[in-house]
Structure formats: structure tokens, C-alpha cells
Amino acid sequence: MNFTGWTNEDFDVFAVEGLEERMAALIAHTRVKLTQLGEDFAPVLAEIAGEEMFAHVAKHARRKTNPPHDSWVAWSKNKRGYKMYPHFQIGAWGTHAFVQFGIIYESPMKGVFAEQMVKHLDEIRATVPDDYMWYPDHMNPKGYRTSEMTDEEFQRIAHRLAHQKNGEVMIGIIVPRDEAVAMTPDQFAAKAKRTFETLAPLYKMAFSVEE
């Protein structure tokens, strides 16, 4: 395994003032860990998804003024990128690490997953644990636990996903930074693998029409 574990420095980078300064800190610390995780989990996710998966570490290249508040590595079945496809992620904000599956606003496959969300709501409730988080905006760390979600809220996310240009959804877990830093690399990797295995049925739902 390449991953050497989280440190406080990996999370502290998001408190560094200034775009250039924060990016320099991010590259020196957090991105190293994301690259390691990308290499470690590509074969793991290939086995879980049943197809080759490619790692894409966020570069934040579009940012010209505002420094990033989080960073991540994403895996998709496309070698060139992940934003157009359902994908898996591991990443960090200043307060926590996260492990999740999702579809962001740039994917033309949003409607497929939205339809499956509504059609298989009972199955999703049985699959996704109560403490997993649902995020209607990947740029906002505020999410909603599965246990807090009513059927109407699931349908609202699905409708937004299908009909609004900026509709998206991310689903997964958070690991508070103190807990992440205290974990050994093997402990965090095992927790991430279990999470991806739990989320795998959602990934497959997103491709159900193609299949």
C-alpha cells in the first residue's frame, strides 16, 4: 500500500491564506496523500465496479482567485476524466476526510440515476446506512443523514438532479480529522473499502439503462 496515513498538515492546508500559498501547501501535503490513495484504490474499485477504474487527482486548475476549501481524488471508468461519469471519491476538507460516490452537474447521466433513485427508493434505504451523508452540492460540506431524509427529500434531490443544470448528488461518509489522523493507513483504507462496497449498488444503478 502506498498510502502513508493522514496528518494534521493535510487538513491544515485549507486554513492557509491566499491561492498560491494554499496551493503550494496542498501540493506539498494533501495531494501527496490523494495520489497515494488514487494508486491504491484503482484496482480495488475495479474489482468492486467490475470494470477498469482510473484515478484523477483534483488539480484546481480553473481557480484564479479563491483558494480551494477541499480537495479529492476521484475514480471513474474513463481514463481522461471523471466529471462526466458516476464516480467514487476520497478527499478532505479542513474539518474531515470523506469517502463517497456521486454524480456532479457536468454528467449527462444525471437523469438515469435520478430515475433509479425514485424507482428503487426502498432498496436505497435498505442499502445506504442511516449515518451516511447526502450532499446536493459537492461544494458545500453541509449534508443530510440518510436517517433524516424523508421520501419527499429523496424525490426533491432526484428531481433537481434530472431537471436542473446544477443538479448533483454525493453520498458517503465523513471521518472527522482527529479520527482520520489517529487511524493507521490500513484502518483508513479498510474503512474506505467498506464504504465503497456499500455504495457499489448505487454506482451500478447509474448505468442500469446502458446495461
Automatic annotation (TrEMBL):
Alphabetized SUPFAM superfamilies for the sequence: YktB/PF0168-like (SSF142913)
Pfam families registered for this protein in UniProt: DUF1054
Family: Belongs to the UPF0637 family.
The protein's name in its UniProt record: UPF0637 protein OS242_11530
